[in-house]
UniProtKB/TrEMBL annotation:
Keyword Membrane: yes
Binding site for substrate: 198
Covered residues, full protein: 224 to 650 of 684
UniProt source species: Acetilactobacillus jinshanensis
Active-site feature positions: 82
Keywords for this protein: Cell membrane, Manganese, Membrane, Metal-binding, Transmembrane, Transmembrane helix
Main location: membrane
Binding-site residues, Mn(2+): 38, 82, 257-258
Protein name per UniProt: LTA synthase family protein
Length: 427
């Protein structure tokens, strides 16, 4: 068993990417905000309903002079949804093919996660979320990941009208969260997980300031309404960062965790995308989510590299100036110049700049044209598939076998879960 980690390290060492000197360490010492935009898909960017932008604040942030936004960035979650996204973002490990790794392996396993690492480099760390702490087993998993603080639903003002769907409404959440953020010693790493833009997209009347779409699919139509509300909440939070000057010394990372509209709604998706029908290529494209990095001094652009949630942590670590030569992370730095750009979906399908492979269907990624691969293409696809299968299976082995307990990277102190207590009386 202990030797299984060797196989993993061999694979990872083969695929480690060198940082891009243009970005390496350029955000050193800054605070980090991870803003989790619930169920937020890339198609919403610049999307209009009856001529009106659904998410004007996020659009503006996407195009901001100091934002690098990735337009070929995919969610890679499976059944673990939000929890899979969290696992990838903070560990660069995939969620599992079934269930949620945070639920099944969050409590017992050893992790070398972002919060623990940053804590050991002088950061204070906090997760903030307006749902009960047990959801997705966060209260236990966050200890394994080394979060110093977890400000769950108990920490915010309670009134029945403040909640909708899974918990606290995003505007109230961001506003209330600010009082905890204010008290975090700097530099800090703070993750804020939003909620309101979650299926079935419920919203109270006074917050409904955007018309639902009219596809006739009841589970799809209110999506833009809660997305609009999330956008307003996000806008208010950016305003707060500006007012307090926190925007001057903070990196703001914002991302959509996964689709809001599942593949079961093809006719509605077709209408939303103004297409007559939807094939598996369109569905692959539909799994894009925004990924944006913003800080003062960053020269903004739309970056077309192909990547996904697994790549976030290596990207962030390089920006913060931490050399990655001994971590167990399956992603690679999105800002690096020599990436393989193979994006694995959790079911083994994948997208590269050349090919989109969905089951037995192969498309050219640039045009969406369906092809019957020639011998040369077949060879490339086979190699891509091999990489995808290997990274998914090795990542699973790390989690199933709790392999990080056998690995002691230099400069990283093992997390002791007993050091953490998230009860409000300790807060
Ligand atoms: C619950 C929230 C929803 O706290 O994060 O998770 P999801 O259903 O999107 O996985
Ligand atoms: Mn989610």
């Amino acid at each position: 068993k202990p030797k299984d980690i060797k196989k993993v390290l061999k694979f990872i060492n083969q695929h480690r990417t060198k940082p891009n000197i243009q970005y390496y360490g350029k955000a050193k010492g800054k605070n980090v905000f991870i803003i989790h935009l619930e169920s937020f898909q890339q198609f919403l960017i610049n999307y209009r309903v009856h001529g009106r932008l659904v998410t004007p604040n996020i659009d503006k942030f996407y195009h901001n002079d100091h934002t690098i936004a990735f337009d070929n960035f995919y969610h890679q979650v499976s059944q673990g949804k939000t929890s899979d996204a969290e696992m990838m973002l903070e560990n660069s490990l995939f969620g599992l093919p079934q269930g949620s790794a945070m639920v099944t392996y969050g409590t017992q396993n050893t992790y070398q996660a972002a919060p623990a690492f940053l804590d050991q480099h002088g950061y204070s760390t906090a997760a903030l979320h307006g749902d009960v702490p047990s959801f997705w087993n966060r209260d236990n998993t966050y200890k394994s990941w080394g979060y110093q603080y977890f400000f769950d639903s108990k920490y915010y003002k309670e009134k029945p009208s403040y909640n909708v769907g899974y918990g606290l409404k995003d505007k109230i959440f961001f506003k209330d969260a600010s009082k905890y953020i204010q008290r975090l010693p700097q530099p800090f790493y703070a993750k804020l997980i939003t909620l309101t833009n979650h299926y079935p997209y419920l919203l109270d009347k006074q917050n409904r300031s955007f018309p639902a779409t009219k596809t006739g699919d009841k589970t799809v139509d209110p999506y833009v309404q809660t997305a609009h509300y999330l956008d307003q909440a996000f806008g208010e939070f950016l305003h707060y960062l500006h007012k307090t000057g926190l925007d001057k010394n903070s990196v703001v990372v914002a991302y959509g965790d996964h689709y809001g509209i599942s593949n079961n709604h093809r006719p509605a998706i077709a209408q939303l995308l103004h297409k007559s029908n939807i094939n598996s290529y369109d569905l692959a494209q539909f799994q894009k989510v925004p990924f944006m990095i913003n800080y003062r001094g960053l020269q903004g652009k739309i970056d077309h590299t192909y990547g996904g949630e697994i790549d976030v942590l290596p990207t962030l670590m390089h920006l913060l100036g931490y050399k990655d030569n001994n971590t167990v992370q399956f992603g690679n730095d999105l800002l690096s110049n020599h990436r393989n750009q193979i994006v694995a979906f959790r079911n083994g399908n994948f997208v590269t700049p050349k090919f989109t492979v969905m089951g037995s269907d192969v498309y050219l990624t640039k045009t969406g044209k369906k092809i019957k691969p020639n011998a040369q293409q077949e060879k490339e696809i086979k190699a891509d598939r091999h990489y995808v299968d290997e990274e998914l299976s090795l990542s699973d082995q790390v989690i199933y076998g709790d392999l990080l307990r056998f690995y002691k990277p230099k400069g990283f102190k093992k997390v002791n879960k007993k050091d953490y207590n998230y009860k409000p009386s300790y807060g």
